């Protein structure tokens, strides 16, 4: 069966790293204000390309060896 998770939020200090293809995920990704760092290591780590990603104030989105369009 297809994985379906909607609207994910990273909050709090620290780093969350997503390294795999999560293209089955739907919905948006949000890093809350002061939500630390989210690092992706795959072009579809945040879900499919139709999803939106919001990075709040004092939060970061990092890329680790990602190839291809994101």
Q: What topology emerges from the helices and strands here?
A:
Elements: E1 8-10, E2 15-18, E3 29-31, E4 36-40, E5 53-55, E6 59-63
Parallel strand pairs: 1-3, 2-4, 3-5, 4-6
Give structural notes.
The chain is mainly β. The protein has strands at residues 8-10, 15-18, 29-31, 36-40, 53-55, 59-63. The strands form two sheets. A three-stranded parallel beta sheet has the order 1-3-5, with no helix packed on it. The termini are far apart. It is built from no helices and six strands.
Question: Tags for this entry?
Answer:
70 residues; mainly beta; three-stranded parallel sheet; globular
Quickly describe the structure.
This protein is mostly beta strands and 70 residues long. The chain is built from no helices and six strands.
> β content, as a range?
25-35%
Residue share in helix:
under 10%
Q: Please provide the ordered H/E string of secondary-structure elements.
A: EEEEEE
Q: Which regions contain 5 or more consecutive residues with pLDDT less than 50?
A: none
Mean pLDDT: 88
First CA to last CA: what distance?
A: 25 Å
In DSSP terms (H or I, runs of 4 or more residues), the helix count works out at: 0
Largest sheet: 3 strands, parallel
Radius of gyration, rounded?
A: 12 Å
Shape: globular
The strand count comes to 6
What spatial order of strands do you see in the largest sheet?
1-3-5
Structural class: mainly beta
């Amino acid at each position: 069966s297809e994985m379906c998770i909607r609207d994910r939020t990273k909050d709090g200090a620290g780093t969350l790293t997503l390294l795999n293809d999560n293209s089955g995920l739907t919905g948006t990704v949000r890093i809350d204000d002061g939500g630390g760092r989210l690092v992706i290591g795959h072009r579809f780590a945040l879900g499919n390309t139709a999803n939106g990603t919001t990075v709040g104030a004092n939060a970061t989105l990092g890329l680790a060896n990602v190839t291809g369009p994101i």
